Amino acid sequence: YADALAWTEDSLKMNESFGALQLKARLLAEMGRRDEAITTAERAIQVGKAAQPAANTAGLEATLKEWRGGK
User: Fold this and answer.
1) pTM of the full predicted structure?
2) Backbone angles phi, psi at 27, to 5 degrees
3) Rama region for 4: left / alpha / beta (φ>0; ψ in -120 to 50; rest)
Protein backbone atom coordinates (compact mmCIF):
# COMPACT_ATOMS: atom_id res chain seq x y z
CA TYR A 1 0.00 0.00 0.00
CA ALA A 2 2.89 2.38 0.68
CA ASP A 3 3.84 2.68 -3.01
CA ALA A 4 0.24 3.27 -4.06
CA LEU A 5 -0.12 5.92 -1.37
CA ALA A 6 3.05 7.68 -2.57
CA TRP A 7 1.82 7.68 -6.17
CA THR A 8 -1.56 9.01 -5.09
CA GLU A 9 0.08 11.79 -3.09
CA ASP A 10 2.18 12.73 -6.14
CA SER A 11 -1.00 12.91 -8.20
CA LEU A 12 -2.66 15.11 -5.59
CA LYS A 13 0.26 17.56 -5.74
CA MET A 14 -0.61 18.14 -9.40
CA ASN A 15 -4.39 18.08 -9.13
CA GLU A 16 -6.58 17.66 -6.06
CA SER A 17 -9.48 15.56 -7.32
CA PHE A 18 -12.28 13.62 -5.70
CA GLY A 19 -11.04 10.35 -7.19
CA ALA A 20 -7.48 10.73 -5.94
CA LEU A 21 -8.59 11.86 -2.48
CA GLN A 22 -11.05 8.98 -2.24
CA LEU A 23 -8.32 6.53 -3.21
CA LYS A 24 -5.94 8.04 -0.64
CA ALA A 25 -8.60 7.76 2.07
CA ARG A 26 -9.25 4.10 1.27
CA LEU A 27 -5.53 3.31 1.19
CA LEU A 28 -5.01 4.99 4.55
CA ALA A 29 -7.89 3.00 6.03
CA GLU A 30 -6.43 -0.26 4.71
CA MET A 31 -3.11 0.69 6.30
CA GLY A 32 -4.81 1.16 9.68
CA ARG A 33 -4.46 4.93 9.63
CA ARG A 34 -8.15 5.56 10.28
CA ASP A 35 -7.95 9.15 11.59
CA GLU A 36 -6.05 10.25 8.49
CA ALA A 37 -8.49 8.30 6.32
CA ILE A 38 -11.44 10.11 7.87
CA THR A 39 -9.87 13.54 7.38
CA THR A 40 -8.98 12.72 3.78
CA ALA A 41 -12.45 11.33 3.05
CA GLU A 42 -14.04 14.50 4.44
CA ARG A 43 -11.87 16.57 2.10
CA ALA A 44 -12.70 14.28 -0.82
CA ILE A 45 -16.41 14.79 -0.24
CA GLN A 46 -15.96 18.58 -0.15
CA VAL A 47 -13.98 18.53 -3.39
CA GLY A 48 -16.42 16.14 -5.04
CA LYS A 49 -19.47 18.21 -4.21
CA ALA A 50 -17.76 21.41 -5.40
CA ALA A 51 -16.73 19.87 -8.74
CA GLN A 52 -18.59 20.72 -11.93
CA PRO A 53 -20.37 18.43 -12.46
CA ALA A 54 -20.50 17.24 -8.88
CA ALA A 55 -19.08 13.81 -8.15
CA ASN A 56 -21.28 11.08 -6.73
CA THR A 57 -20.03 11.04 -3.15
CA ALA A 58 -22.70 8.73 -1.71
CA GLY A 59 -20.49 5.65 -1.53
CA LEU A 60 -17.67 7.44 0.22
CA GLU A 61 -20.12 9.13 2.60
CA ALA A 62 -21.44 5.69 3.60
CA THR A 63 -17.91 4.38 4.08
CA LEU A 64 -17.01 7.45 6.14
CA LYS A 65 -19.98 6.81 8.39
CA GLU A 66 -18.72 3.24 8.97
CA TRP A 67 -15.20 4.47 9.72
CA ARG A 68 -16.48 6.98 12.24
CA GLY A 69 -18.63 4.34 13.92
CA GLY A 70 -15.71 1.98 14.18
CA LYS A 71 -13.44 4.42 16.02
Assistant:
1) 0.92
2) -65, -45
3) alpha
- Per-residue model confidence as pLDDT tens digits over 2-40: 999 999 999 999 999 999 999 999 999 999 999 999 999
Identify whether the C-beta of residue 29 lies closer than 8 Å to the C-beta of residue 1: no
Contact partners, residue 58, CB within 8 Å, separation at least 6: none
Please state, in angstroms and rounded to a whole number, the distance separating the CA atoms of residues 70 and 66: 6
| Residue 45 Cα to chain centre, angstroms | 8
Eight-state DSSP code of residue 40: H
Contacts of 69 (CB under 8 A, 6+ apart): none
Question: In angstroms, rounded to a whole number, what is the distance separating the alpha carbons of residues 43 and 28?
Answer: 14
